[in-house]
Structures are given as C-alpha cells and as structure tokens.
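Quick one: examine the sequence and fold tokens given here and explain what the tokens say about the fold. Here goes:
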Amino acid sequence: MRKIVEAFQRFNYRICGLYLLDSQFIEDSSKFFAGVMSAMSAMVQLEIPHINVMTKMDLLGKKGEGAEMERYFDADPTLLLEDANKTMRPKFHDLNEALVRMIDEYNMVSFIPLNIKDEDSISLVLAHIDNAIQYGEDIEPKEPKDMDDDMDGEEAGFGDEF
C-alpha cells in the first residue's frame, strides 16, 4: 500500500488515508481497542494525512447520539482500559496497560461519526478530508478590485469577443 501511495504522490496527487471502523465495534471494548490499535498502525505506516471514521452510526439509533459516544470518538484510553480489564483475564492486564500508554503517548486516534442518512454527517467527513489534503489552498484568491474589473468587462461585452 505504501508503494501505491508513493506512486500517486509522484504524480502530484494529494492522498488522504481513511480508516473506517464499524460502529458495532463499540459493543465489545476489546474489539474497539483492537480497532484503535489498527487505526494507529495504519497512520504510522502510511505517513500520510489520515482521517478515522466510525461508520454505520445510523444503525445505533438513539444510542449513537448520546454523550456516551463521545468517549469512543476521542478514544479515552483510561476508560477503554477499565472496560477491557473487566472482560479479559488478569494475565492480560499488563499488556492492556502498555497498549493504553502507547495510545495515550501518540494521542493521534480520534473518530468522526458517519451516519449515511444524515447529510450534515457526510459533509463533516468531506470537510475533514478537504482540510487534511489542503484542498483549495493553492488557488489564488481574487482581490475585491479584480472581481469588480471582471464584472465591468462582462457588462461592456468584452468577455464575449474573445
């Protein structure tokens, strides 16, 4: 995958990585923990602007809209550790703590919720992608004076002759 990304970048394409995590992963904290680790691994390996998206939020219904979900969007490692330690054997607690420290030190993983039935949710994800690849940053802004000159030329009929 890294070679493909490098090939696109050589042709001056702007690349943004999207890591999609199914919202059903929040039901089991160990699965969510694995999803966070996988997202972080992809971010580190590809070395490109990266957006993490939690998909299928529409399937959660009212549960997906509460303040409880915020802890999953920003991936609070201490709360994840508590949940994971409740469901795992004690011999894995040290490993969980080490993984939580690593997630906390990098502090790179957060998720944007995507509800495919909500147009604002789709627009939010697209805005994050545009921001990550700096879409439109290289376009020269027009000065208000230049815009007035363009309008004057069109009104006088100059724009149609050429």
Summary: DSSP finds eight helices and three strands in the chain. Confidence is low (pLDDT under 50) at residues 158-162. The radius of gyration is 22 Å.
